[in-house]
Amino acid sequence: PVVARGLGKRGRAGEAGARLEKVAAAIPEEVGANRLNIDAAHLMLATMRTDWTGVLVHADAFLTRARDLGSEVNESAVFQVQGWRACALSRIGRQAEAAEMAAGVQRAEARAPGAVVGFHICRGDSAAARAMLIRMLAGADTRGWALRFIQPVEARTERTPLDRLTDPVELAVRGAPDVIAAANKVGRILPK
Question: Measured in Å, how far apart are the chain's first and last C-alpha atoms?
Answer without folding.
Answer: 31
